[in-house]
């Protein structure tokens, strides 16, 4: 049994716990949250024996092999560093850290400690996203000529909506580009196989003053009327990026959390010389395949029709759609088979992936500051 300690039970922690409860050979030993009530709730819901408020209880427990870091950005570096130093394997939420320097330190330390690392870029684990990547890799799309997409949400679209993500002290230098942009650029790299070479970023804070509630609020929570104070927002709630891939292909991406009606609406379109692919999170089981000289196709997620390399991610018979929790489970399956050492030939998101994402983020922020194209460090 691989023993796990999980830290942070806000929005994403319980999603991790759900996936962990469906994995064989893995047992969550301890759950930590600074809010004891949340830690207890999660322990009861997921049948975990131990819970507490001090993450060091997990770090110093020699029985725990893997730490899941589900805390806000501000704590990613410290907790992950402590866990690696104690010889643990770590699966972290994104972004890997608040700064590139910290991210680099974590990559170096994890290599030194030979830790198995993972980062929760779960959108690439929808079966048809895997399929799209496999097809592009086999050359079915021909040359990748252009990439475009977006990520829109509405949970911060009112001035009474609040999240720690809006504070520089909690989030780092970016809200949405780090939070949603990192997922999307992970898809670009994973599907096309190409790195982002240069970027031009345009960021904005569409709601500059917000009512920060005095009480703690979780992601997606509707706050409404409650005691609050007016706060000038420091970070962006809109982000638009023009970019070029290393093969020269141009692309564009826009994200915002202030789009009424858009919930977790992300999508990506890849235009190749032979055909096009498009995936939309609202219909996450469908892959649209576009042709010039014959009718377009829709491939529904299907363990019989998909490429052999992606079948393991389409875990139900055709017509039984997987969802967000299953995408996370697919990621965890790959991660834990790496921890067990049973499978080695996987393109998994690890700390290096998180580090590369931070390089893109840094370049976008610098580009916006200087109002010019900036190369992504290689
Ligand atoms: C908030 O924007 C958030 O919870 C992200 O942090 C997640 O990564 C995304 O899956 C849903 O939205």
Strand order of the largest sheet: 16-15-14-13-7-12-11-8-17
CATH architecture of the largest domain: 2-Layer Sandwich
Q: How would you name the CATH homologous superfamily of the largest domain?
A: Dihydrodipicolinate Reductase, domain 2
Strand content: 15-25%
Q: What is the assembly state of the chains in this entry?
A: single chain
Order of helices and strands: EHEHEHEHEHEHEHHEEEEEEEEEHHE
Largest sheet: 9 strands, mixed
Which structural class best describes the helix and strand composition? alpha/beta
**How many domains, as an integer?**
2
**Helix content class:** 25-40%
Count of helical regions: 10
Summarize model confidence as the mean pLDDT. 97
Distance between the termini: 39 Å
Unreliable stretches:
none
Q: In words, what does this structure look like?
A:
By secondary structure, the chain is α/β, with parallel strands linked by helices. The chain has 2 domains: 2-115, NAD(P)-binding Rossmann-like Domain (Rossmann fold), CATH 3.40.50; 123-370, Dihydrodipicolinate Reductase, domain 2, CATH 3.30.360. The chain is built from 10 helices and 17 strands. The protein has helices at 12-21, 36-45, 56-59, 73-85, 100-112, 127-137, 168-171, 176-192, 324-340, 351-370; strands at 2-7, 26-32, 50-52, 66-69, 89-92, 117-119, 144-152, 196-204, 209-213, 228-232, 238-245, 250-256, 265-272, 276-280, 286-290, 297-300, 374-375. Strands 16-15-14-13-7-12-11-8-17 form a 9-stranded mixed beta sheet. A 6-stranded parallel beta sheet has the order 3-2-1-4-5-6, sandwiched between helices. It has a two-stranded antiparallel sheet with strand order 9-10. Helix 4 (73-85) links the parallel strand 4 and strand 5 (89-92). Helix 6 packs across helix 8 (176-192) and helix 8 (176-192) packs across helix 10 (351-370). The radius of gyration is 20 Å and the shape is globular. It binds alpha-L-sorbopyranose (SOE). Residues 11, 153, 179-180, 183, 219, 264 line the site of alpha-L-sorbopyranose (SOE).
